[in-house]
Design a protein that fits this description.
Blueprint lengths: L12 H10 L3 H10 L4 E2 L5 E2 L2 H11 L2 E3 L5 E2 L9 E7 L7 E8 L5 E5 L4 E3 L2 H5 L3 E9 L11
Antiparallel strand pairs: 1-2, 3-9, 4-9, 5-6, 5-9, 6-7, 7-8
Length: 151
C-alpha cells in the first residue's frame, strides 16, 4: 500500500515519489539526496531531480529500485508496469515536468499519486486527462534483499 506524501518543496515531486514508494519521510529522502549531491540547481536557484537522480536516490534507499536505465516513452496505460514513476508534461512549458507515482493493483485497478496536491487519482477519466510523457519502471525489493537506509 502506498501512502500519499506531499512534497515539501516547490520542485520536490521526485523526492516525494521516492518517499512514497519507499515508505520513508520526505525529509529523510531529501537529506539523502543532498548528502550525495543529487539535488541539481537550475538557473532560477530551485533544485530538480532527473530520472538518473531518482535512480541513484532509490539505490541509497535500498527498499526500492528504479530499474529503467532511462525514461521510457509513454504510449498507453495498459502498457505501464505495476509500479512506476511517471513524468507528466507541466502545462506544455519547455523543460518543465512533474513526477507522480503509478500503481496497478492485482485486481487491475490503477492509481496515480500526485505529491504536489496531494491527491490520488483513481478514475479512468481523471488519469486520461494527465499528459503522461515518459515513465521509469520501479520494483520493490524483497525483504531479504533490503539493507539499512544509507545516511
Amino acid at each position: 500500500m502506498i501512502s500519499l506524501i506531499k512534497q515539501q518543496d516547490k520542485t520536490g515531486c521526485g523526492l516525494a515519489c521516492v518517499a512514497m514508494l519507499a515508505g520513508i519521510e520526505y525529509g529523510r529522502i531529501k537529506s539523502i539526496a543532498q548528502k550525495h549531491g543529487f539535488l541539481v540547481k537550475s538557473k532560477n536557484g530551485e533544485f530538480y531531480t532527473s530520472s538518473s537522480h531518482l535512480r541513484c536516490i532509490s539505490d541509497k534507499v535500498q527498499s526500492i529500485e528504479v530499474v529503467s536505465l532511462r525514461r521510457i516513452k509513454f504510449s498507453k496505460i495498459d502498457e505501464l508496469p505495476d509500479l512506476a514513476i511517471l513524468s507528466i508534461d507541466n502545462l506544455g512549458v519547455k523543460n518543465k515536468w512533474h513526477w507522480v507515482v503509478f500503481e496497478r493493483k492485482r485486481d487491475g485497478s490503477v492509481y496515480i499519486y500526485d505529491p504536489e496536491i496531494p491527491k490520488r487519482y483513481e478514475k479512468a477519466a481523471e488519469i486520461a486527462d494527465l499528459y503522461i510523457t515518459h515513465y521509469l519502471v520501479v520494483k520493490r525489493k524483497k525483504i531479504n534483499q533490503v539493507k539499512p537506509v544509507a545516511k
